[in-house]
Structures are given as structure tokens and as C-alpha cells.
Amino acid sequence: MTPVELSRTVLHAVRRAVDDGELSVTVPERAVVTAPGPGGCGDYATNIALQLAGAAGRPPRDVAEILRARLVGEQRFDDVVVTGPGFLNFSLERTAAAGLVEEILRRGLRYGHATTGFSGTAVLLRCPAEVRAVVVADAVTRVLRSQGDFVRVECDGPPAPEWASVLGVDVTTRGPRIADRYVTVRPVPAPADPLPLGRDAARWALLHPAAHDRPRIPGDHLVQREGNPLFRVRYAHARTRALLRNAADLGFHPEPGPVSEAEALLAVLGDHPRVLAATATHHTPDRLARHLLAVAAAAMPLLPAVLPLGEEKPSAAHRARLALAEAAGTVLAGGLSLLGIDAPDHL
């Protein structure tokens, strides 16, 4: 179950409580689902009860208990717990984790993308003819299109030809002239020419900082070590690909199943569709970059346990861990591709 699916499930419980007369509130458009905070438990949590308590005229914990009674019977939950002032915490059924991995592997690099092609709004995106603005506009366009939007890009002036040839930007003006939404991208300009960094490092250097932050040029974006965030993301991806090759040499393949002590990784993988949607809504490719760093950080502790050690034979647990590692690599590669950055299999 992804956060988007869980949000729908929670809203359905709210709607049932309203229909049954236990709550007198307007059903919100969405329930915010996140990883549990301090004092929480399980795989996901939501503050929907705190959000509704004022309108319902009841304490948040009372609202949470009303919703919990409608959620605890869901087959996809092992448990639903109320913590703190009224947070609902969800522990997913172990088979739900396997279902998430199966979905990621089935969707591949398009996991988190809109499933119905171009079905969103028409967006006219404008940017100044400055290298960082053009790269940010290119990344925002990619993410918007992944969510089903039609996008037309217009620059205030002609982009330099090398921005396309070296940085791979595509700010052609295809797309609708009449838009439902108008967006202006105007980040803090780059303090120096990023082209000497090459496509991948330059794009990361321009996209990873928030729009109001000044990017570091040249920085350490070409250094192959832990201190380089781009290296951490690409290294985690390359490790997952190496594990798949090594497992094939040992004669076993990924097979989704329950994986113990992988809650953090499953949470960030399940959060990927929400992050893409938020990146598209707020036009913030830095949000996606930070998410990829979180995926890489959550994946790295799993990877040493994927392959059998010594004379150990591959087991169902090894196959499940391998499938989860492949899913993590898939999300990393898909996210990097939306930023216009390559995810090499060897590093």
C-alpha cells in the first residue's frame, strides 16, 4: 500500500464516519500520510484526526478512535494504533510490503508516474534565459509531464546552444499556447559557469539546492566519495545493480516477499509517488533530489545482507531482500532520470 492508497483509505473511513453520523465534518480532499514521528510506531502515520477535531467539536483522540474502529479491520493492516494527541499509526501487513515491491518492479522507471498518460492540466512554464533557471525549468517540465500535465516552456531569451548539447536541457516551445496554469521559474542564478562539471554533476549542482539557495560551483560534485550527495545516490543504485548481477551468477533471482527490519526503506519507497506529485505541484526539483538521498540512505544498510555468505544457500529471505534492493535501485534510477541525470550500472 502506497501513501496515496493509504490516504484514500483514510478518507474513505472519514466518509463512512460522516455517513453514519459519528462525525459532522467536511471530508477533506486528502489525508497527509508520512513516516511516524517521535513517539509513533508502525510504517505510516497521519494527523487527520487533529485536522478534523476542531470542526467535529471533539478531542483529537476521540476522532482518531472513531476512525481507528473503521480502519483496524482492513486486511492490509497488521495494526492501527492511536498515539500522542491523536495520530493514527499504521503497521502494514507483511504481504503489503511484497505488494509494494511488486508494483515498483512492474512499473519500473515509471513508478509514481500518472497511469493514464496526459490527463492533467495545461501548464505554461516561463523562465529567464539563465543557465540555472533553464535547467530547473527542464527538470520541472519532466516531472510535470510524469504526472500527466501538458507543458509548454518559454524563455525570456534564447538559451545558449551548449546548454542543450552539454546539459541536455529541452526548453522547446511545444505544448498548448492556452494554459490552465502559469508558472514562473526564477531560482537564484548560478554564481559560475557549471558546464565544466559535465551534464550529470552540473545538473545536480543546480537542482539539489532549493531555489532560494545559491548553488556551489564547482563544489565537490565530481568527487567519488561519501561526502558527495550525488555520488551517494548513484553509488547506492550501482550497488543494487551489482547485487542483481552477482545473484544471477549464484543462480537465484529477486522474488518479492516479507523483509524484516526494512521499514524505513519501504516507507521512503512507498512515499515516492507522493514526492513526485509534490515536486510537480510546487515546482521544486530539490524536493525530489532530497528524497533520492533518503532512499539511498535507507537502502545502504540492507545491501550487505542481500547475498548469501560463505556456504549459505540462497533462501526466500535472500530473494525477497534482492527484490527490495532492485526496487530501491529502480526508484533511484527513475528519480535521477526525471532530474535529467544518468544512473550508471557501474561506478
TrEMBL record:
Sequence ranges assigned to domain Arginyl tRNA synthetase N-terminal in this UniProt record: 4-92
Pfam families according to UniProt: Arg_tRNA_synt_N, DALR_1
Broad EC category: ligase
GO molecular function, one term: ATP binding
Enzyme nomenclature, EC number: 6.1.1.19
A biological-process GO annotation: arginyl-tRNA aminoacylation
DALR anticodon binding domain boundaries: 233-347
Chemical reaction(s) catalysed: tRNA(Arg) + L-arginine + ATP = L-arginyl-tRNA(Arg) + AMP + diphosphate
InterPro entries in the record: Arg-tRNA-ligase, Arg-tRNA-synth_N, Arg-tRNA-synth_N_sf, DALR_anticod-bd, tRNAsynth_Ia_anticodon-bd
Matching SUPFAM superfamilies: Anticodon-binding domain of a subclass of class I aminoacyl-tRNA synthetases (SSF47323), Arginyl-tRNA synthetase (ArgRS), N-terminal 'additional' domain (SSF55190)
Keyword field: Aminoacyl-tRNA synthetase, ATP-binding, Ligase, Nucleotide-binding
GO terms for cellular component: cytoplasm
Record keyword Cell membrane present: no
Signal sequence extent: none
PANTHER family in UniProt: ARGININE--TRNA LIGASE, CYTOPLASMIC, ARGINYL-TRNA SYNTHETASE
NCBIfam families for this protein: ArgS_rel_codon
Protein name: arginine--tRNA ligase
